Amino acid sequence: MTAPRLVVTDQAFGNVRHEQAAAVAAGAVFSEHFCRTEAETLAAVRGAQAVLNNFAPMTRPVLAALAPGATVVRYGVGVDNVDLAAARDLGVRVCNVPDYGVEEVADHAAAMSLALARRLGRFDAGVRAGVWKITALAGALPSLRGMTVGVIGMGRIAQAYARRMAGFGCRLVGHDPFVSDDDARALGIAPMSGEAVLSAADILSLHLPLTAATRHFLDGAAIARLPQGAIVINAARGGLIDEEALAQALHAGRLAGAGLDTFEAEPLPAESPLRTAPNVMLSPHAAFYSDASVDALQRLAAEEALRALRGEPLRCALT
């Protein structure tokens, strides 16, 4: 009988010890790849029973190349690089790891919020340029305690972020169609419609999955609803924002700043208008990252792959 295959399509963690251990425990043949294209991914996973996937495209042709009844484990929360409809059609199980790195991402979003709200980037650049005039560097500078923080989406990360911002005295408002008004209030977040959150938020933090319905949630029209001088934070998915419209609003002074950890194309293209927009903090999809969170992510993903190879129920099945 041929041994099953456990394949890592791509990873950015530096080691695959948990994944290799899972393969040994299941008696599976292990292979690791660094796929970027559909063709590379298809070649790597052909006939595999379990696949651990980071960003490589899991398209219908790729999924069709898997062994019957195979399982794809997505490293992380979002699954926008996996064709879920095709997976259902083909009988491929897909699962994710939704509960790692929550505190790290919340820390990152809060850190960006605070740095932009307190104009730290402007102050740093000014001092280095020989400018020592607060009003010239800061512009309008409201107190954090007078600011309204809006969250779109109220999952684990949004809740952790909201707790941090509440500690600075901010008023919290939010929208999530899957969270009841009573549950939102219990979290200390005043429930509102999405449009009302946009109109109220001095700091807007996005915590949505990327779907056809949420792509470019924050487009030019949505940005126009934000208060003058608002700050936008996105440590969720890059496609939630129309980056061209965001850059235009920053250049026009319509927004006071933006903190972005995710982008529509990654790595961020050299020609992206965000690179030259003022008052933008950029990080390389690193919000999840810490020594502890990466180890937890790989361990939980590898454990899910082992369950799949053993025919056991999955912990976080999506299909």
Structural notes for this entry:
The protein is of the alpha/beta class and 319 residues long. The chain starts with a strand and ends in a 9-residue tail after the last helix. The longest helix is centred in the last third of the chain and has 20 residues, at 291-310. The chain has a seven-stranded parallel sheet with strand order 8-7-6-9-10-11-12, sandwiched between helices. It has a five-stranded parallel sheet with strand order 2-1-3-4-5, with helices on both faces. It has 13 helices and twelve strands. It is elongated and about 75 Å long. Helix 1 (17-26) packs parallel to helix 13 and helix 5 packs across helix 8. The model has no long low-confidence stretch (mean pLDDT 97). The chain has helices spanning 17-26, 38-45, 60-64, 84-90, 102-117, 120-128, 134-138, 156-166, 181-186, 194-200, 220-225, 243-251, 291-310, and strands spanning 5-8, 29-32, 50-53, 71-74, 93-95, 148-152, 171-175, 190-191, 203-206, 230-234, 255-260, 280-282.
Question: What does the secondary structure layout of this molecule look like, with pairings?
Answer:
Blueprint lengths: L4 E4 L8 H10 L2 E4 L5 H8 L4 E4 L6 H5 L6 E4 L9 H7 L2 E3 L6 H16 L2 H9 L5 H5 L9 E5 L3 H11 L4 E5 L5 H6 L3 E2 L2 H7 L2 E4 L13 H6 L4 E5 L8 H9 L3 E6 L19 E3 L8 H20 L9
Parallel strand pairs: 1-2, 1-3, 3-4, 4-5, 6-7, 6-9, 7-8, 9-10, 10-11, 11-12
Helix pairs in contact: 1-13, 5-8
